[in-house]
Design goal:
Helix content is about 60%, strand content about 10%. It has 17 helices and six strands.
Length: about 375
């Protein structure tokens, strides 16, 4: 059995996807020891075993029961385009876990038309309805993400379809739940597979100005910290770069002229409460000129999936446009993990009432 090595964390701490899974409270014990023979380097190879360890760590934090986790593990090991497990493996599984696995495998193996937006909406709605609750939807998204991250291992005949489904079906589903980091990673990997020439050309263009952008991020972060520290606001500032697929979409709007894309970087400011968010915004607007047309207040008018933040774009003295997002730590959790944010962060997330609230929220998004 692979045990997630997790430590407890306070809800108010700012986490990002790369560290979240290392600091979540540990899930309930999971009875997977019966499948231990599947988790050996002799059976899988050391590279795939490490990847599986990472996936299991993530699945253990979103699955509500050990049966769901075992089912997710089986789906990763026996995807829809391979044969079913042998009888010995089936007998070693918990009966309910194997039933959930077959259900997930049926969803995973769905094929559908993707010629029009109507076809795509129908496909997303079908997957959404068949999953039925958040934890299975999240497990399926994680498995699809881990699979496309290892696209070299996918059979050639399945690769193109898997990438198209990731881009047009599963990424929008992640967006519907407000889990933007999964959406972004699915899009980037699909883009790399479907349009490799454009992907690597864009990667080269972005790399050319990497040092300049890094210097700009450091300079702006330092100045923002100085401004907010002087104002007495407790805060954290992070710099981030636009994802490749996001840049690719922007290029299509500016006739493929890379030099016209000004906001390749963005800064994120996390604060303790809403009042501090608006205070920070006022201090930033006092120090830098901003583009009124690009200001968005998603705190007073949240997006349908619950996303809240203040968005503004300022212009530096050197003429660079920098996007700044300002939000509370709790809003940041929702921005990264969608409707599951509160559930994922609380030690009481295994309480039936909490799970019921989560699945109620899941169903509301389908209305």
């Amino acid at each position: 059995m692979i045990e997630p090595n997790l430590v407890q964390t306070k809800y108010s701490e700012a986490l990002n996807p790369s560290t979240f899974w290392e600091t979540r409270p540990s899930a309930e014990p999971v009875a997977l020891s019966e499948l231990g023979f599947l988790l050996t380097s002799e059976q899988l190879g050391s590279d795939r075993l490490n990847h599986l360890n990472n996936l299991l760590k993530r699945l253990s934090q979103v699955c509500q029961t050990s049966d769901e986790l075992q089912a997710g593990l089986l789906l990763y090991l026996y995807p829809s385009y391979t044969d079913l497990p042998n009888r010995m493996t089936q007998q070693l599984c918990h009966p309910n876990a194997y039933e959930i696995f077959l259900r997930l495998r049926q969803i995973d193996g769905l094929s559908f038309k993707m010629e029009t937006e109507k076809h795509l909406i129908r496909a997303r709605d079908l997957i959404y309805a068949m999953c039925g609750n958040f934890s299975l939807m999240m497990a399926l998204l994680l498995i699809r993400l881990h699979r496309i991250q290892q696209f070299e291992d996918l059979p050639e005949y399945h690769l193109d379809m898997a990438a198209k489904q990731s881009l047009h079906v599963y990424a929008p589903l992640a967006n519907r739940l407000g889990i933007f980091w999964i959406k972004a990673e699915l899009e980037d990997h699909a883009f790399q597979i479907l349009e490799p020439d454009h992907y690597y050309q864009l990667k080269k263009l972005v790399a050319k100005k990497r040092n300049e952008r890094s210097a700009l991020v450091e300079s702006m972060s330092r100045k923002i910290r100085q401004t907010l520290r002087k104002a007495g606001l407790i805060h954290q500032v992070y710099g981030r770069y636009k994802r490749f697929y996001s840049i690719h979409e922007k290029l299509q709007k500016v006739d493929q002229q890379f030099e016209r894309i000004q906001d390749l970087i963005a800064l994120r400011i996390l604060l303790d409460d809403v009042a501090d968010c608006y205070a920070a915004l006022s201090y930033i607007h006092e120090r830098w000129s901003h583009n009124e047309d690009r200001f968005k207040d998603y705190i007073t008018q949240p997006k349908p999936n619950g996303y809240q933040s203040l968005h503004t774009t300022v212009t530096t003295s050197g003429g660079d446009d920098v996007e700044i997002q300002i939000r509370t730590h709790e809003m940041h959790a929702v921005a990264e993990f969608g409707i599951a944010a509160h559930w994922l962060y609380k030690e009481t997330h295994r309480h039936p009432a909490v799970k019921a609230d989560l699945n109620k929220s899941f169903k509301k998004l389908d209305q």
